Amino acid sequence: MKLLGKYWGYAVAFVVVYGWFSGSLGPNILIVLSVVAFLYSLFQAPVWCCAETRNQEFCRNNAKGVLMGCWIREHRWQKLKWFVRRSAWGQLSRRLLSGFNGIAASFSAVGTLVSAAAAVITLIVKTV
Ligand SMILES: [Zn+2]
Fold this sequence. Notes:
Helix 1 (about 1-20) packs parallel to helix 5 (about 100-125). The chain is elongated, with a radius of gyration of 16 Å. It has one domain. Helices cover about 65% and strands about 5% of the residues. It contains 5 helices and 2 strands; from the N terminus they run H-H-E-E-H-H-H. A two-stranded antiparallel ribbon has the order 1-2. It binds zinc ion. Zinc ion binds near residues 49, 51, 61, 70 and 75. Keywords: Membrane, Transmembrane, Transmembrane helix.
């Protein structure tokens, strides 16, 4: 149960994928579930912090979500600054993608964002 408490967002993402392929979930439900799983990836999923430490290495403390840093406050600021600066994205994604949790969280963030957008488009197409 503790494992589920930490990784519940991936279960939601899995339901989203299932919903798309089976066609059993309506676009409104898919939007809600996609957004929930997306926010989970950004703020809850267990990943490495990945901020840069003083000796030019990257921080491997546990962090919650792709967007957040570890308990060190400077790291959180550093990551936020990176997200605003497009040129730093390559570096950040390389670091994130070097660990399994980072890969899972990054893919789930991108996937659920695409899914949410697709569900919104589906909804618009249906209602027009
Ligand atoms: Zn850190």
